[in-house]
Amino acid sequence: MGGRLGNTVRLWSQEYRIHRQWLWPKLLFTVTADGRTVLRVRERFRGNGGARVFDTHSDAALDPVVTLALLLLEGRPHRMGLGRGGSTPP
After folding, report:
1. What pLDDT shows up at residue 30?
2. Is residue 73 within 8 Å of 17, Cβ to Cβ?
3. pLDDT per residue as tens digits for the range 6-49
4. Can you tell me the distance from the alpha carbon of 90 to that of 78, in angstroms, rounded to the nearest whole number?
5. Fewest 10 Å CB contacts: which of 55, 56, 59, 90?
6. Domain boundary assignment for the chain
7. Does the pLDDT of residue 52 top 70, yes or no?
8. Residue 62: its pLDDT value, please?
């Protein structure tokens, strides 16, 4: 399915680069592919009960499954892993 090395993610033979704003208190990042921005994500709300709300803006050609995978990889990296069926995240 894919793999990750640093800020480069490979999903279904397409390579994406994640650019995260580390000094921002909430999740804020963009994703580029082939030199153009294909996804922008900004966390708008983080409730005490664990609810998190994200504003996303994506390229119309970006597959929704890829969008979700990239969001989960960056938003919950301790829970999300890349691999083939049967593998479980750490």
Report:
1. 94
2. no
3. 889 998 889 999 999 877 778 899 999 999 999 999 988 766 76
4. 7
5. 90
6. 2-75
7. yes
8. 92
- N-to-C CA span, the chain: 17
Structure confidence at residue 87 (pLDDT): 47
Q: What is the pTM of this model?
A: 0.73
Rounded Cα gap, residues 43 and 54, in angstroms: 4
What tokens does 38 get? 């294909």
Return the amino acid letter for 26: K
**d(C-alpha 25, C-alpha 32), whole Å:** 22
Token duo for residue 41: 């994500």
